[in-house]
Design the sequence.
């Protein structure tokens, strides 16, 4: 079961009421290094804690000035499996205060690149509650483990035959095709004598001998 733990300082934000309306299991508690914690299990059944530091747009700008943000990010990474920064507000962040845009860009870049913490933007407390609901549903949903291997199109029978023959010593794609065109089946290639193999272009005595040695040597 997935649970959302909310810091007591968010009591009057309206977020708790919104989550209760959405039938999310919510607990109010004192959190040292986050405003929200989503607790559950990942796709492999391992316990996982997601820590979310929420900033209003003005608070985010203030934290750049007094440098609170850096310490908060360090604690967030230290205490949670997945740290997230949430910036709440619908105004243009670059026009709220008399801030040089590069100061804001620099902090945003540092958060994502130096600290590897994703940044999420929400419009208001309702939007924040909806995002928390999405995280909860994501954890509750049964998911297949992600594969890092690129999915390939299944090989045709012809391609599989060529691939098998290409594994023979000194045999590349062109010679593999020549062998299959001459002998027609993999079985006939395997059963061919050295002399028969040498009749295929670019297969000399050495290659023919190595192929037969591989095929006929007892596995030990």
Sequence:
């Amino acid at each position: 079961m997935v649970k959302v733990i909310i810091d007591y300082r968010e009591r009057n934000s309206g977020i708790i009421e919104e989550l209760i309306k959405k039938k999310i299991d919510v607990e109010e508690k004192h959190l040292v290094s986050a405003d929200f914690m989503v607790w559950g299990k990942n796709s492999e059944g391992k316990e996982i804690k997601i820590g979310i530091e929420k900033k209003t747009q003005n608070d985010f700008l203030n934290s750049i000035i007094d440098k609170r943000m850096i310490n908060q990010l360090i604690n967030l990474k230290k205490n949670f499996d997945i740290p997230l920064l949430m910036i709440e507000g619908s105004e243009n962040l670059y026009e709220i205060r008399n801030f040089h845009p590069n100061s804001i860009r620099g902090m945003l870049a540092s958060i994502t690149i130096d600290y590897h913490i994703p940044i999420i933007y929400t419009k208001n407390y309702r939007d924040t509650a909806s995002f928390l609901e999405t995280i909860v549903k994501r954890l509750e949903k049964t998911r297949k483990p992600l594969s890092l291997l690129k999915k390939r199109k299944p090989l045709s029978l012809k391609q599989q035959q060529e691939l098998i023959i290409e594994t023979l010593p000194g045999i590349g794609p062109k010679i593999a095709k020549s062998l299959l065109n001459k002998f027609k089946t993999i079985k006939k290639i395997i059963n061919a004598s050295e002399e028969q193999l040498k009749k295929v272009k670019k297969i000399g005595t050495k290659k023919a001998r190595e192929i037969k040695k591989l095929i006929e040597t007892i596995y030990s």
